[in-house]
Amino acid sequence: MTASRWVAALWLPAVLLVSWQVLADQGVLNAVFFPPPATLAATAVEMLREGELQRHILATLRRATEGFAVGVLAGMVAGLGMGASPFVRRSLDPLISAVWASPKLSLLPMLILLLGIGDTPRIVLIALGCFIVVSLHLVDAVRGIHPAYVELARNYGAGRAALLRRVYLPAVTPAAFTAVRLAFGRALTLAISVELVSSPEGLGNLIFMAWQGLLTERLYVAVGVAAGLGVFFHATLRWLERRLITWRADEKAR
């Protein structure tokens, strides 16, 4: 990232943090509800020193990545199948539409009844959210492939395997990366959400317990860490996309 991009990305958060600190020091903001950034930094350092923050971060990331991996894999298979086969699309579309429109947390009690108490229902719910995002993006990407490309490949003798490898996969790869970025954000959101409702550890549990005890410094730290994780993984996936999909980066540079 160039210096100008760093400046463009950081100037607004920096201004907000400085303004927040100044207003808190002047007593304009109530420190109980708006602890100054310096206090939040000290609280974060103390939690890191005690190992508490790392424990909650790792618990959230474990749930998010496990659900993410299962949901993305299933979503890619379903999305490619729905895009390539009208029968598969008509079979799965009503179910996917119904789950997409349902509040995901409302499914957690039912999953707990079916799968028991523990991490399994939480991970299944996260996987379900990622599955919906990836499958919908991929089915649109496959259906958006120009028929002329498919027909041209068939005229040169390409079979189903060659069509998948030479036409469908390269065409849907950019959309797949977009879906993966969105799916990881959804996984992180759902992981923290289920931890708010039912979990002995994780950032969601940390947020809930801080709210219960009016420990606003810990509350802000947990929310800030969750936001920072989202920014970090989004930027990392964007970086991987630029490195792996070189033809798309060349097109954007023109």
Description:
With 254 residues, the chain is an all-alpha fold. It has one domain (36-253): MetI-like (MetI-like fold), CATH 1.10.3720.10. It has helices spanning 3-25, 37-50, 52-84, 86-101, 108-115, 119-143, 147-155, 160-197, 203-212, 216-244, 246-253. The protein starts with a helix and ends with a helix. The mean pLDDT is 87.
Secondary-structure map with pairings?
Layout: H1 3-25, H2 37-50, H3 52-84, H4 86-101, H5 108-115, H6 119-143, H7 147-155, H8 160-197, H9 203-212, H10 216-244, H11 246-253
Helix pairs in contact: 2-10, 3-4, 3-6, 3-8, 3-9, 4-6, 5-6, 6-8, 7-8, 8-9, 8-10, 9-10
Gist?
The chain has about 250 residues and is mostly helical.
Q: In total, how many beta strands?
A: 0
The count of helical stretches stands at: 11
C-alpha geometry = globular
Low-confidence stretches: none
**CATH architecture level-2 label:** Orthogonal Bundle
**Could you tell me how far the N terminus lies from the C terminus, measured between alpha carbons in angstroms?**
18 Å
**Class, according to the CATH hierarchy?**
Mainly Alpha
In helices, the fraction of residues equals: over 70%
Average of the residue pLDDT scores: 87
